[in-house]
Amino acid sequence: MSPxxxxxxxxxxxxxxxxxxxxxxxxxxxxxxxxxVSPPLPFISTRVSKNIGDVAIMERFARILADQYxxxxxxxxxxxxGVAENALMYRELTEFINKTxxxxxxxxxxxxxxxxxxxxxxxxxxxxxxxxRPFTTVTPSQIVVSAGVTTLLESLAWTLADPxxxxxxxxxxxxxxxxxxxxxxxxxxxAVGFHGSDPFAESCVGYYxxxxxxxxxxxxxxxxxxxxxxxxxxxxxxxxxSPEALKEIMRFxxxxxxxxxxxxxxxxxxxxxxxxxxxxxxxxxxxxxxIIDPALVHVLYGMSKDFSANGFRLGAxxxxxxxxVLQGLGSISHFGWPSGLAEAAWTAILSDAAFxxxxxxxxxxxxxxNYTRATAILDSHGIKYHCKGNAAxxxxxxxxxxxxxxxxxxxxxxxxxxxxxxxxxxxxxGGDEFRAETPGCFRVVFSMPWDWVQEGLNRVLAVxxxx
Length: 467
Ligand SMILES: Cc1ncc(COP(=O)(O)O)c(C=O)c1O
Fold this sequence. Notes:
- The chain is an alpha/beta fold.
- It is about 35% helix and about 15% strand.
- It has 2 domains: about 55-90 and about 355-465, Aspartate Aminotransferase, domain 1; about 105-350, Aspartate Aminotransferase, domain 2 (3-Layer(aba) Sandwich), CATH 3.40.640.10.
- The protein is built from 14 helices and 16 strands.
């Protein structure tokens, strides 16, 4: 079986039959009782037409948002444990900002440019130098700030690859990668399967290698693999890569002259789990000598997760030895110009050493508490889950024993289980959305208020028939 497949949703949106559907009907509408032929739809680009189509996901979100659970006001509402947000620190964040943030005239201007103000880039270099143990000191000039890591992922696809090129990502992976790489840059996600072997082991490189050879060896098809993206700590598994595995992946990237991009957006969301064997190692901390050309190494970081601030829209890109990539990102940075207000907020947090210390410690404690309580519930009902996580916001459940019978295949059964869970008032994302290799896995975001997580898990257990 091939370890390499392009993303299903990419192939779907590439289907020639699927075109934009902001249709006003079939042209046979009636006005004043008279048949009327509608004018043809105003032109929109073929590019964007290909992106439009999968409205089901947007509809699902609209439904979840319109009927959100509230213990008192809407106890029958939907508990959202499907979106990667950390609600455990909202009080600290809002109190700090409401107390600290003052806006001056400078905040009202274009600031110091579209790649992030000097103050935030300096504060970020301080964060990297104190918390990420970089092998070489990170300087503000090695950082590009943008309006979220999503923007940076899209800009990176644009910068590192040409249309029809590919980016290797191991399964299961962050579900937005295919869209982030493809929607504008037209770069494919090359999904790499590990066929039951450990995706965090050094031996994972063999699977990346085969996937690259297969992709590059396709006859008469344009496009080569240009990069490999790793999420460390991992979304959706919550596990960290060892320094040895990171080095092995880097050696592979060096051999193939492809970029190594490490998305470290969950770097500081670590918690205690006695069953986890590894703690977070930043790619910045690796001595690249004899391993990889440092010009190929890039790191992503963001405010969304570790700082409970998905809505602030700030992300940072670090590249220590590749001015062309920094300039390339700079050349399109106007389109993801970070907000001065958001920059001021993150700068204030990062510049207050005592607050930052207590933030990281408290966040870690709360994540650990929720993880311990949630896994106790799962253990007591015999539900299996990926037990090596000690960072990020996720529990990766194995609900395969509870897939409903009578469906054409296990993926269809998984979608049906997801539908039944939503009907029962809990939203968790099915493994299919992460291109999981084995059907029946679901990702639970446990960084929500405990009563939500508890009630959400109870609803899952009820649907599975074990409560
Ligand atoms: C691995 C990973 N990268 C990037 C993002 C997007 O981050 P942002 O909110 O900064 O766009 C997410 C969000 O879930 C994520 O999990």
